[in-house]
Amino acid sequence: MNVDASQPPVIMLMGPTAVGKTDLAIELHEHLDVELVSVDSALVYRGMDIGTAKPSAQELARAPHRLIDIRDPSEPYSGVAFREDALKCIEEISARGRVPLLVGGTMLYFRLLTEGAADMPQADPGIRQALGEMLEKGGPGALHAELSRVDPEAATRLHPNDPQRLMRALEVYRVSGETLSAHWARQSPVTLPFTPHPIALLPGKRALLHERIKQRLDKMFANGFVDEVKKLRARGDLSPDLPSMKSVGYRQVWEGLDRGDDCPQMAFRALTATRQLAKRQMTWLRRWPGALQLDPQDADVAQQLLKIVRNTGT
């Protein structure tokens, strides 16, 4: 990543799920000359509102977010597509003399935006099916063990409980004969058309974050999350293999409905998956180069953020 400090600023407000990113972003929007761009792989989908904790209509009226509700759940949305869309948003917002504020928790999207996307081989259905059978028989651990054998570098970077990315790394190797790491190593440094200002919201007390996650999930299930997934299933054109339905929470409820689980069982599985997601997100954030780390549990975190963003020239 090549950074030219003369390029217009872009604020990157990153944090784990349920940490309070939306509330902070709205406050920044209401006090400063910033426009919001969502960086969330689930919020892009229409009709997935409860299980994504999508900002309400009232919140979006106060602070419009770009890149929310831009895809039908039947239409896959990739990190490469996000990068193209986000760069357009950044260009349009900057051209009007305002500052883009990118807010979200999909760390891969932030990475692709700042580092670019390596030239990867196309997916192979046969290989993907074979890897799916490996996952079914041995779980994510079998995928991670195989990746550790053929691409130790990628295995170190990828979480052992992230089957989607483990499968993709193995698929790249089996299709091309080259490791995912080798493909990334050939990637030319990206010159960014903006100056990134990464801010990482890292809670000091994980137990408090876990409690926030539980409270939010309890609210989701009370507000009809299971009925939302049932409605999506009833469409007939969606499957658990689609990226939309692999989103944390939706995947656990879909599988629970297949098994005939009751609501508490689905809620427990969703809670476990969400806490694992938060752990992965915080691992990414701690390693993010040059990120300014703030504790969102501090009483004055909003004032800290306002001061920091003002200093970027907004």
Automatic annotation (TrEMBL):
Needed cofactors: Mg(2+)
Gene3D superfamilies linked: 1.10.20.140, P-loop containing nucleotide triphosphate hydrolases
EC number of the protein: 2.5.1.75
Substrates-to-products reaction catalysed: adenosine(37) in tRNA + dimethylallyl diphosphate = N(6)-dimethylallyladenosine(37) in tRNA + diphosphate
Signal sequence, start to end: none
Coiled-coil positions: none
Superkingdom, natural source: Bacteria
Pfam families membership: IPPT
Positions of substrate binding: T17, A18, V19, G20, K21, T22
Annotated site residues (Interaction with substrate tRNA) in this chain: T106, R128
Region of interest (Interaction with substrate tRNA), ranges: 40-43, 164-168
InterPro entries the record matches: Dimethylallyltransferase, IPT, P-loop_NTPase
UniProt keyword ATP-binding, yes or no: yes
Sorted UniProt keywords: ATP-binding, Magnesium, Nucleotide-binding, Transferase, tRNA processing
Annotated binding of ATP, by residue: G15, P16, T17, A18, V19, G20, K21, T22
Function, in words: Catalyzes the transfer of a dimethylallyl group onto the adenine at position 37 in tRNAs that read codons beginning with uridine, leading to the formation of N6-(dimethylallyl)adenosine (i(6)A).
Family (UniProt): Belongs to the IPP transferase family.
Subunit structure, interactors included: Monomer.
NCBIfam families: miaA (TIGR00174)
Protein name per its UniProtKB record: tRNA dimethylallyltransferase
Taxonomic source organism: Kushneria pakistanensis
Classification lineage: Bacteria, Pseudomonadati, Pseudomonadota, Gammaproteobacteria, Oceanospirillales
Gene name, Swiss-Prot/TrEMBL: miaA
